[in-house]
Each structure stands twice: as C-alpha cells, then as structure tokens.
Amino acid sequence: MSDDRQVTTRSATQQRWIRMFVDAADGLRWGLMREPNLRIHFGVATATVLFGAIIGLEAWRWSLIAICITIVIAAEYFNSAIEQLVRAVADQRTVEFANTLHLAAAAVLVAAIGATVVGLITLLPPTISWLLPS
User: Fold this and answer.
1) In this predicted structure, what is the pLDDT of residue 113?
2) pTM for the complete prediction?
3) The domain containing residue 28 runs over which residues?
C-alpha cells in the first residue's frame, strides 16, 4: 500500500512541475507578444549571438555574453510583471506607484548599460582581429 501512495505522490509532484514550466512558457510567450521592449531585447540578443558566431567567439566570451543576455531579459520580464501588477491594483496614479515603475525601469536600464559595457569589452578585441587579420 505504501508503494502505491509513493507512485501517486510522485505523479502529483511531476504534474506540479510540468504545470510550473507550462506557466513559465506562457509568461515567455505573453511577454514576447505584448511587450515591445522584450522584443527589442530579444532582437539585440539574437543579433549579438549571430555576430558572435560569425566572428568565432571563444567559450569564455560566450559565457559572458550569455550571462548578460540572461540578466537583461530577466530584468525586462521583472519590469513587465511589476508594470502589470501596478496597473492591476492602481485605481489612480500615485507617487508611490509612479516611483515603483520608475525603479523597475531603472533596473532594466542599469542591466542594459552593464551588458553593453561587458559586450564591448568582450566583443571588441575579436571583432578587431576578425576585421583586421594579421
């Protein structure tokens, strides 16, 4: 009898995990369909990956690029979630809600600026070598 309960519990746990991944995929899809800034970030990320493939980045450079892309896109998803939440609960525009939205947007800006700096430091040397071979 105890073995049957373990199988049932394991199955329920697996179903919860599957549901969490489906919900996350729905969030990814929803964001891409309705948030223009996410599409911009994904476009820049795609262009960066394609450019990195063309110039033949080393693995350590890829890891920095991947981390930067992940941070910026995650920050934009957090910003979008905060915007949705504020819109859902705000009957009127208050200073606190405005400040919350400004702070969330600032987080994306900081992440994007940091990623740009890291991207330049990471991509510039191989780009120069690719454009001006010895």
Assistant:
1) 98
2) 0.85
3) 1-34
